[in-house]
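Morning, I've got a small favour to ask if you have a moment. It would help a lot if you went through both lines with me. Thanks so much in advance, here it is.

***
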Amino acid sequence: MKLPFVISLPHCSGEIPNRIQTGMVLTRAELFDAVDLGTREIFGCMPAEQILCAEWSRLVVDLNRPPHQRDARGPVALIDYHGRSVYGSDAIPDEKEIAQRLSTYYRPYHRLLEEAISKAHIKGLLDCHSLKSIGPPEAPDAGISRKDIILGNNGGPDGERNPQRGDFTCAPVLLKLIKQVFQTAGFSVSLNVPYAGGFIVTHYGPTLAQNGNMALQIEINQELYVDPETEKIIPQKAADVSSRILKCFQTIGRAV
């Protein structure tokens, strides 16, 4: 039985076209830092109605940013998550290059996403990410240990509406039920801290919530399945986590 969800994995890829990579000054390891490690392995095998996986690195185009944003952390980022310059001074993307990337890499993903969540039997959009166990210097929780799972509905730490952020993307009652499901499965859970939801959830979520459905950003702590020394995925741990997540999703699917 398929889960009544669309799963979005906007940061699962590390692929970069050669023509773009030639202008980048980050090392191979630094480029790899941009990948949400483990999201494809853990969420990409779920029996969801549809799973959308990014084909290209977020350093090519970040699918979880507004298309009109033009600062250093826009859809074509000039600095990475650690504050490092992505491009040499002679290769900074101009507006023509940004427009081309949006047309080639960004809009096709969002067209597929819009089509997928518009189907009548879809109950929710799950936008899935992973994060380091300790908040890095550029993060809002720098130096702080993170929970196993962070659920974001664009609200506050209690899941209720945050007036400064706008409409929630998942009803607080449902969010708290989902939190309990993950806790029952043995995960520690935080609501909207450190992240309450990026563009994908906040753009599509309010309409879904108003129609009785939901959009939820799910961040999973890489400490659950990544070797801290090699920074590589431990396959058995990833498989075990994926199995536990699946049981959670099945429970949630029956509740919505």
Remarks:
- The domain at 3-17+35-64+94-255 is CATH 3.40.630.40 (Aminopeptidase).
